[in-house]
Amino acid sequence: MRKAIQLILCLLAICALVVTGIAFYQIVLASTIHGAPVRFLTAQAGPYPLKLALYNDPINAGDAIPFDIAVAPGTHGPLTYQVTASPGPGIPGSLAQGDVNAQQSTPYGVPGSITLVTRGPWTLHIVIAGPAGRGEATFPLTAVAPPAIPVWLAWNIGLLPVYGLLLFWIAQTRRNAKQKPEHAK
Amino acid sequence: MASVRHALPNGHVITGEAVKGIKDLARLRLVTGLILILNSLMGVLGADWDIQWHAVVGRDRTFTPPHDLILLAIALSGIVALTSILIETSWARRQPELQAYSTDFMGLLHASTGSYLIGFGAVCSAVAFPLDTYWHSLYGIDVSLWAPFHTMIYMGSVLSTFGMIYLLLSAAHLSEMQHDLWMTTRLSYAGVVALLGILLSKFSTFLTPALSGHTIHFASLTLSLFPFLMAFIAVFLCVLTVRLVPWTGTATMMVLVFLFVFLLMSTSIPPLMSLLVQAEHETYLARATHIGSTIVPLMGQTPLLLLTALSLDGIVWLGRRGKWLLTKQNVWGLVVAIISMIVVAGFTLVQYSVRQRALQGGIGRFFMLAFALEIALALLLTIPGSLLGNWLALTISKAIQTQRR
Fold first, then answer.
1. Which of A89, B117, B280, B327 is deepest in the core (most CB within 10 A)?
2. What pTM does this model have?
């Protein structure tokens, strides 16, 4: 009986670790550019006509999503980029800062990434500064999340370590109570 | 203190080689425990830093420096525990006599019970991390500390800390059998006191939401759960320390460790916050200016807990000196714990409520009356909290004491 419980615990721990590993791998993978962009958006940022390439559609909330910013050919001089995303009305989020690596480039422009923490509408702000001046463009984006699990289930999963510790203590106390009379004999 | 004699195979004839094996086992468990204490401190730093980041900057990516610190601490605790299990298993295979001092797992592994608990705690916390990202993607950045998967991360670390306590107690008990290992015994007991102090730090941080938002509504009054939880946690840990470590003044030492951790966090987190805000080009949320600081005070972390610890230690000292019966010592311990907890929780609650009401506007006469009644009723909750904490500590300490493996 004891060995069976230990085996079940061990298998559960291994399965949980494998699933967690996959989840972490997906979080990391989501932030890297793989394959070709799946969606292009265009806008005018002051003097700079720009094209935004997105690699995810739909955009998963919580993942770092990669993108490329391309300014129309013919723009001369070094450009600096600042990317932020602000949550839409009623969305419980704060201003998200994006990372742009202006030193690198892909066939679709300068690469960067940003995390939209929560599901719902967001506005992506791109500010470009260069020899022709400063320009700003905005893009509406929507982040989606997997279906919600019931709150009671989430709490019961969350309290698993507490249940485990309490069960362990109950088992230990019972075993001690059994052992004492044997030793008294 | 509960009798532990029957829990170990003392009746066995121990050969010279086995004695060396037991000594090595005690030292291995001590070293593992000490490494894990340092690792726990790193985890506490990551967690406290992350709480501040969430409160005044907002949640950002999955892999921020505070999250990375927490994840590193979780991963390291799992790796260190697994290494210790594998080393002990290989020793037990070479020297079968050592199997009597370890817990068998599936007939394959032989190690301290504590190591398994640490491993399971680490697995729980690790699993909770991506689940927490999922929860934030559903409900946003303003999720309370008392969210399902924050609780899972915290309680996983609590489970691991109890594992470390088991590990170090087994090291202390094994080394007590060898007369030349007094240093190992002392360091192991000191480690247990340190771990209980770290546990108090974790719990007192975790009960912060009890001060705001999580309340019981009674007629037109709002009662805080804080005194009940504070009394439960503080009495539980103080009584547990007194029962597990056979020294004088252990509850006070435990609270001193807790205050040391508090000092360490209070001095290191503000500069870390400023550095990270600059590095990530972030801005503070509006509420950071509202509270007048970029750091949210964690009101559960109060130096007043020294009062509870000192009064409990005083009773233990008087009891040992006057050779009181254990029952009498327990009853008096409980009485002083309840009185001191009413003072501690009352002071914290008044301090917090006055600050909050001053921020909301003036305090009228009617509000003063209702406010006084709310606090008085809330303080009554320290009695069941202390009773529960005391009962749990006495029950668990017996179970832990008899477990020497």
1. B117
2. 0.89
